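Appendix C. Worked example: Reverse transcriptase domain-containing protein
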Amino acid sequence: NSSPGWDGISMKVFKRCLPAVMDLMLFVINLSFQQGVFPTELKLAKYSQFFKK
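Step 2, the predicted output written as structure tokens:
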């Protein structure tokens, strides 16, 4: 999926930058689990409903 998320960053850009930021993201996520506090920014999601006939 190439549509941007809540932050406006498209998947294409995210995939290209992933190798450069992967260690930092992993550190933040692991620290969050260790401390039991998850940043609000990482709790956000964008979703759409599609109704079937």
